[in-house]
Specification:
Blueprint lengths: L6 H21 L6 H8 L3 H12 L3 H19 L4 H7 L5 H12 L3 H8 L8 H8 L16
Helix pairs in contact: 1-2, 1-4, 2-3
């Protein structure tokens, strides 16, 4: 028999989820995984993932990768680091995974993004540049046409 959480329990869970979100925002370049985040929030990994998705619309891992890609975009626009250096600077340990995720979120591979965006935000206040260049899941990347075999 399952029961609905009380308002106090629900608010306590939301506060924990906010702390997890803040931790991801603060420590995105550190090795983070759902189990470590869950331990820090005193929740099971499954419960954290379910509640995080309900509250924020995506899994903790997807949110973490979005933060990493946002930071990578800023570093690539600067132009003084290679794609590999950017990959490791934002906390990714696999260049392949980084490139794949970057392409999914932004719509172009990191090398193409770096080439195209050099100077694109020059003279723009950083707060505006961040907003204008923020990756938006499932909206920026072109939708591939279905292939019928």
């Amino acid at each position: 028999m399952t029961s609905r959480p009380t308002t106090a329990e629900h608010l306590r869970d939301l506060a924990r989820l906010r702390r997890v979100l803040d931790r991801i925002d603060r420590e995105y370049a550190q090795p983070l995984d759902v189990e470590a985040l869950a331990r820090g929030a005193h929740m099971s990994a499954g419960h954290l993932s379910r509640q995080f998705r309900l509250a924020y619309g995506e899994s903790p891992y997807a949110y973490l990768m979005t933060r990493r890609i946002e930071r990578a975009m800023a570093l690539l626009r600067r132009g003084d680091l290679s794609v590999t250096e950017v990959c490791f600077a934002v906390g990714c340990t696999s260049l392949g995974t980084f490139s794949t995720r970057f392409t999914e979120l932004v719509g172009v591979p990191p090398t193409t993004y770096r080439r195209r965006s050099a100077g694109a935000t020059a003279g723009m206040p950083p707060c505006v540049a961040k907003r204008v260049t923020k990756p938006i899941r499932n909206r920026e990347a072109p939708i591939p046409e279905p292939q019928l075999a």
